[in-house]
Amino acid sequence: MKMIHIIFLVVSILFSTSNALTQDFCVADVKASDTPAGFPCKNAADVTVDDFVFDGLKMSGNTTNIISAAVTPAFVAQFPGLNGLGLSMARLDLAPKGVIPFHTHPAASEILVVLRGAITAGFVSSSANTVYVKTLRKGDIMVFPQGLLHFQLNTGKTHANAFVSFNSPNPGLQILDFALFANNLPSSLVGATTFLDLAQIKKLKSVLGGSG
């Protein structure tokens, strides 16, 4: 009886996989809820060519903000045709001294190509906390392994921009500074876990909109 259950499970998996392979695409129904497996498929009769086209990356992002930088995503929420395909993109725009602060993408690795300007980029390994940093210029490419803290900083005198690509339609994003200082985690706990003094923590919370 146990063997029958195992065979049934294997056949069920193969059957579902076979069905998935017979489907050319699964355009996201972004009106539905996202799930760990992605968005449900839009009704095929409602799919149009516009679901497979995204024009948002041709426009410069607004860099008038605290980080003097902008990220324009082409993830599945903005570009439904990516659903289930295992890839996405984004555009980075950085004014002089603009920065994409230390952040991680829990669900994807990232590859960056510089289109204009000079961008100093780097990441930190999780094992020995080894830092890998290099200043990149037009045409240079750098890869950031999945889940590792990394950053991009405009170290040139002019605006810089780049395209980044991910091996997931929804790579996820957590910015370290915002995770620490843009919430209501009590300052005493932040201090105990970061060794920063309370005055500095409260200053950063004030700048980034946190409380506590």
Automatic annotation (TrEMBL):
GO terms for cellular component: apoplast; extracellular matrix. InterPro entries: Cupin_1, Germin, Germin_Mn-BS, RmlC-like_jellyroll, RmlC_Cupin_sf. It is found in: Secreted, Extracellular space, Apoplast. Residues 1-20 form the signal peptide. Oxalate binds at residues 105, 110. Mn(2+) binds at residues 103, 105, 110, 150. It comes from the Eukaryota. PANTHER family: GERMIN-LIKE PROTEIN SUBFAMILY 3 MEMBER 3. This is Germin-like protein. It comes from Cannabis sativa.
